[in-house]
Amino acid sequence: MSTAMDATSLALLEDTLRKIMASASGPALDQALAELGWAEMLSEDPDAAIPLVFRLLGETGAHASVLNDVVLETIGGLPGGTPPMPYAGGSWVIWERSESAGNTVLGGLPLRQVPNGELMRLGEARRAVGWWLVGSARAMLALARRHALDRTQFGKPIAGFQAIRHRLAETLVAIEGAEATLTVPVTESPDLTSMLAKAAAGRAALTAAKHCQQVLAGVGFTAEHDLHRHIERALVLDGLLGNARDLTRRVGGGLRARGSAPRLVQL
Question: Where's the Acyl-CoA dehydrogenase/oxidase C-terminal domain (predicted)?
Fold first, then answer.
C-alpha cells in the first residue's frame, strides 16, 4: 500500500483487497495485508487505511487481526501484540493472531476472554469497528435487496411491495447516517465523537439485521444462507469496545454531568 493515493489508485487498491478477502481470512489474510504494506499505511495514512480495510472486512465477511494494530498504533505499543479490549458486560477479550482448536470463537472471530484489562485510548479502534459494522450492514442490505428483486409473489418481485421497500429504505438511511457520523472531522472531543460514531454504526448494523431478516423471511434463518453469518458477526462487533446502548448511556451521562454539549460538526 502507498500513502496519499489518488482516487484511481484507491479504487484499484479496493478491488485488490476485495479479491483477497474473498479467498482469505484469519492469519492468511493478515499475511496478505502485511505484504501489501498495511502497517505502513496505518502509520502514515490512517484516515484512508482504516475505513477502506475495515469496511471491506464487513462487506466480504472475512476477518483479520488488524484491530490489534489500530489499538497498538494509538497507544504506541509494540507491533504484533494482542492488547486486551473491553467487551459488553464488563468483560475483556483479546483478539488472537493465530488460530488453534482451543481458541474461543465469537461470531467466527478468534476472541478469547481474559480476566481484566486497562482502559486506554480507543477512539481510532472504535471508529475501525464502526466501519466494520457498516460494511456488515451493507452486506446484509445487499443480500436482502437481491432477494427482494429475485423473489416473486402474485406475479411480481416483492421489491415492489411497500412494506419491503420501507424496510430496505430504513436500513439504507441508518447505514448512510452511520457513515456520515464516522466521517465527521474530529476537531474537538475525539473520545465523544468516536463513541457516538461506534454507537451509530452498531445501531445501523442491528437495524440491518432486523429489517433484512424480515425481507428474507424463512430463508434468512437457514444455515445455507449467508445472512445469519453477518448477523452473528454484527452482534459480536457491536459488543466489542462498548455496544450501542452502553456507549449512548455513557455519552448521555457525561453530557448531563458537564451541563453542556460541545459542537461536534461545523454546519
Answer: 121-238
Residue 165: what pLDDT?
Answer: 96
Quick one: average pLDDT of 185-206?
Answer: 90
Whether residue 203 contacts residue 95, with contact meaning beta carbons closer than 8 Å, is answered with no
Q: Give the gyration radius of the chain's Cα atoms.
A: 19
- Amino acid occupying residue 57: L
Q: Is the pLDDT of residue 97 over 70?
A: yes
Does the predicted model carry a pTM greater than 0.85?
yes
Do the beta carbons of residue 67 and residue 128 sit within 8 Å? yes
Q: What is the pLDDT of residues 229-259, one digit of tens each?
A: 999 999 999 999 999 999 999 989 988 888 8
Q: Is residue 126 within 8 Å of residue 195, measured between CB atoms?
A: yes
Q: How far is it, in rounded angstroms, from Cα 197 to Cα 79?
A: 26
251-258, long-range: CB < 8 A, 24+ apart: 251/192, 251/195, 251/196, 251/199, 254/192
